[in-house]
Amino acid sequence: MTFEQYIRKQLDEAALFPEDVEAVIKRIKDAPENKVMENLWHRDLEGYPATMQKLAEVTMKRHALLWIEETCPDAWFKVCFLPEEVK
Q1: 34/36 Cα distance (integer angstroms)
Q2: Residue 85 has pLDDT above 90, yes or no
Q3: Domain for residue 86, yes or no?
Q4: Which residues, 6+ apart, have CB-to-CB distance to 56 below 8 Å?
Q5: What local confidence, expressed as pLDDT, does residue 70 receive?
Q6: Which residue pairs from 54-63 have beta carbons closer than 8 angstroms and sit at least 24 positions apart in sequence?
Q7: What is the 8-class DSSP label of residue 47?
């Protein structure tokens, strides 16, 4: 599974619609702090330390929450992206 496939799967499992998944993916890829990932999105996670998968998850949750706050702040699926201590 690639980095992008992993993030898509997480967003899909949180019940985002396909067009919403696309919007969050675009936001993640366009973020300045993710510029370093530009050539890694289509690489297999298996070849990287587990920390890389965790970092991909952290950025996915961060940008998903930002997108939710901007587009649908009362969304029921928002809780899927909140830190455990906030849930």
Answers
A1: 5
A2: no
A3: no
A4: 3, 6, 7, 37, 45
A5: 97
A6: 56/3, 56/6, 56/7, 57/6, 57/7, 57/10, 59/28, 59/31, 59/33, 59/34, 60/7, 60/10, 60/11, 60/24, 60/28, 63/24, 63/27, 63/28, 63/31
A7: G
Residue 63 has pLDDT above 90, yes or no: yes
Q: Give me 57's structure tokens.
A: 């998850």
Name the pLDDT band for 87 (thresholds 50, 70, 90): low
Residue 87: inside a domain: no
Cβ neighbors of 32 (< 8 A, separation 6 or more) are none
Neighbours of 49 (CB within 10 A): 9
For 11, the domain range is 3-81
Q: How many domains does the chain have?
A: 1
